Amino acid sequence: MTSLISRLSSLVLIFLATSLFAEPIKPDPYNLPKAQDSVYKTPWGIDPAPRETDAGRWVLPLRGLMQRTYDISGQKSEWLLGTSILGAPELEADFLGMGSIQTRYPSKLAGLFTTRLGYDATTLGLNGENGILTEERKGVPVDTPVTDLNWERPAFGGNALRLDFRRLVTDSVSLEFGLASHSDVDSKEYSYQNVTHSPYFSMGRDSTQIPFGGRNIAMNSMHIQPILTWRFGFGKAFAKLNYINLRNADNTNHKVLLDTLDKAVRTFQTDPYVIETHTFGYGGGVEFYPTRKLTLSTDFQYTEHEIFEDSLGRIFKKTHEYTDTSGRQFVDTLFYDTVRTTNYQSMLGNFGIAYHTIFNPAIKFKYEFLNTDNTGDNDTTRTYYQDREVGYLELKDTLWNNVLFRTQTGLQRNSSLLDKVDYAPAYSADVLAFLPYHLRASAGWRHDNKFPDVGQIKINETGRLAFARKDLEYEERDRYTMNLGYQQREVFYGIGLRYENVDNLIKPRWVKHGTVDSTEAIDDVYTWTNIDNVNSLDWILQVGFRLGNWKFYLERGETLDRSFKLIDTPELYYKGSIHWQNRFVSDRLGVSVRVDWQWFGERYDCTIGEHGGPELELMKKYLALDFEARMQILSFELYTRIENFNHSIYMPASGYTPEGLRFAYGIVWSFRN
Question: Among 380, 187, 159, which residue's Cα sits nearest to residue 275?
Fold first, then answer.
């Protein structure tokens, strides 16, 4: 109790002493493609960035955010936050009517439709997310109709399609229709010859030293999201649907065996397992303006997420000894389920009241009720109930026309599967100040809590291995950031510090111990556990500048000090881009060439070796280099992309292999009526 009072007192004193906190980085509003003018737009980087959602991929041009891919672009992938120890950021819960999508969906973010995303690092979420990825605001009236169509085809098969359709149905009713579809029918192994003739740019190696072998992962998906918004005299109402049908293959944790003589020969110990996801949800909400300054809002969504997994890894569980009626003794070997169905029934809602005056006070409340049905090989279904709530008071405003601040102070509640209810304080504050001499400074602070999820307490995962533990404690997390930047039209640079501290960090047991013994049981090594305390100090450097039609950007993040060695978390990363653009034929023809890269530092993953025992596997540092060329004619764009252009022989996780070169071409067509 004393600790809580001390923290709240510190928050109040900081607010009264400085009144300097800031709003989050918000997503840019939607704009039809237009002539690229080489101006800086983004708060902490250079612009224009890659298109936010081509048919085959996401692009998040935000500080610290990176994307790790496991297969061809647009399929299984996850967002990372550089060297952070607090885990990955999450999509806002309102997106699919359920929180922790990246954690609860085994296919992670495969096949999902989103609009342009922003990143809010300090807002309070349902379950201590490491920042929230927010879509641009829905239901905004559209003066000019939008039909943004993206189609993409990889060179060796498959298709990807994305449609963003926005129209005014009447003067007061607008329709937003989003669709994302991927099709890649077969899971099959592939290999490159030992001698390739593609150019390779790297000191000390040439193209004759690049053997490849791997596995293409099948995925067929469809995500449809219509939203209808009605605006009336003193408010608005909306209704939305979500439909997802996804069939995705994935690799288990089993180690890929390399031939000692021919490195192009790779042997997979298991076939891919199958993930089928069927999601259907509906919801709606209203927003009222009783007076000019008062806003009342509420919404609710109900969604069913059925996840079926087949051909899972055959993992030893235990032996069962028994004696029959004749006195003979027998020993049976038992294994974990190889077929499982998980059905989430989620009920998500929000309530808010805001008054637009000095400091713009607002009370916000979000809740999630989750019923989970888990069915295994023997068709026995177990049902679990869990609910979470977060409520807080928010203050935000702009002072002296150049200082923006925001504070959130509230409480999290978690009703766990163990007949236990936890309450924990949560609060955050951030500030952005525009200083003289083109300088800008920001600072942020977030304290929240991450409670164990139903899967970590009750469900054993034998695809990508993870085993439940009932007595997990919830994490208590703190995150502090400070950033200073200099920004003009021609040049930008910034430097930042981030300090993170977490008690009871939830990690697999092999991460806590930092080593494994090949004789240990698989389910013991991969069991979730708590690490008492971990803190980390990191710094981030950003540099961007323009030379004529060229733009350059480089970002570097590194851990300066970490109290506990987390072998699954890198301590160094780089990301950046080189971009050339120009316009011809009286500005009717736009041409651009871009190279983007991400450099991931070393880390370890746990795998299952050739003899069936666990072992640590080094995920070597690697550079993911992508090339893109575009031609824009009025509202029509044609592009081609070469991903992994540098032939990086990388493994994103155990069980996967280098993907080789990935070729794709596509069109983007934005209709103006």
Answer: 187
Mean pLDDT of the chain: 82
The pTM of this model reads 0.87
Name residue 544's amino acid.
G
Q: How far apart are CA 455 and CA 135, in angstroms?
A: 27
Cα 433–chain centre separation:
28
Q: For residue 20, which amino acid is it?
A: L
Read off the amino acid at residue 113.
F
Structure tokens at 542: 């950003």
- Please state, in angstroms and as integers, the Cα–Cα distance from residue 485 to each residue in 121, 441, 468, 489, 544, following that order: 18, 6, 44, 13, 11
- Read off φ and ψ for residue 12, nearest 5 degrees: -65, -45
HSE (side-chain half, CA atoms, 13 Å) at 542 = 23
Long-range CB pairs of 565-569 (<8 Å, 24+ gap) are: 565/514, 566/85, 566/507, 566/511, 566/534, 567/511, 567/514, 567/603, 567/604, 567/616, 568/507, 568/508, 568/511, 568/603, 568/604, 568/605, 569/83, 569/84, 569/85, 569/603
227-236 pLDDT, tens per residue? Answer: 999 999 899 9
Q: How far is residue 338 CA from its own chain's centroid?
A: 27
Q: How far apart are CA 620 and CA 633, in angstroms?
A: 42
CA atoms within 13 Å, Cβ hemisphere of 606: 28
Mind listing the pLDDT tens digit for each residue in 55-75? 444 444 578 888 887 765 556
Phi-psi region of 504 (alpha: psi -120 to 50; beta: other; left: phi over 0): left
In the beta sheet, which residues pair with residue 65? 81
Residue 398's CB is within 10 A of a number of other CB atoms, namely 13
Q: Is the backbone peptide bond immediately before 48 cis, with ω within 30 degrees of 0?
A: yes
Beta bridge partner(s), residue 411: 391, 425
132-135 and 90-91 beta bridge pairing: parallel
